[in-house]
Amino acid sequence: MIPQPWTPRPTPAHDPLTPSRDITHQHFQAGEQVIVLKGVADGELWGDAMRIVAPSWHTPTDEDGWRLRDATGGAQTYVTAHPRYLVHLSRRCPDCLIYLRAMEDRLLPKYAGHDSLVDCGWYTVTALNQLVHIADVRSGR
């Protein structure tokens, strides 16, 4: 077997913006298309595109959340997420555009020159299909 060249995976960038983002439950409505930003791919932000289905309690944060549907399906076709994790895709709203720009300013320079997909590892899905940002994970869960 011929050894393959090893390329170290970039260390995930810290995400101080999402945990402190002040977005209320009312900012989003059922039927809207949103994205959960997860990293960088080929010099652009990337994430999971989903559609908002219904209000839902987000147990990990003890706050109002949204039930989301991932059109691509899979093991987690439906997840519950806190509104601060979401960015509008179906309309251009100022709050989401400001957040998107701030994420671009923070992340794109850190991964300039990487031609592969970089998952920053900010999110996990719990056994209850709750999407949780690493800053919101409670100890013991």
Quick description:
The protein has 141 residues and is mostly beta strands.
Could you describe the 3D structure shown?
By secondary structure, the protein is mainly beta. It has one helix spanning 94-107; strands at residues 33-41, 44-58, 63-69, 78-81, 86-88, 117-119, 123-125, 131-133. The strands form two sheets. Strands 1, 2, 3, 4, 5 and 6 form a six-stranded antiparallel beta sheet that branches. The longest helix is centred in the C-terminal third of the chain and has 14 residues, at 94-107. It is globular, with a radius of gyration of 16 Å. Residues 1-10 have low confidence and may be disordered.
| Gross geometry | globular
Helix segment count? 1
Give the termini distance in whole angstroms: 42 Å
Q: Helices and strands: which structural class?
A: mainly beta
Order of helices and strands: EEEEEHEEE
List the SSEs and their pairings:
Elements: E1 33-41, E2 44-58, E3 63-69, E4 78-81, E5 86-88, H1 94-107, E6 117-119, E7 123-125, E8 131-133
Task: Jot down its keywords.
1 helix, six-stranded antiparallel sheet, disordered N terminus, mainly beta, 141 residues, two-stranded antiparallel ribbon
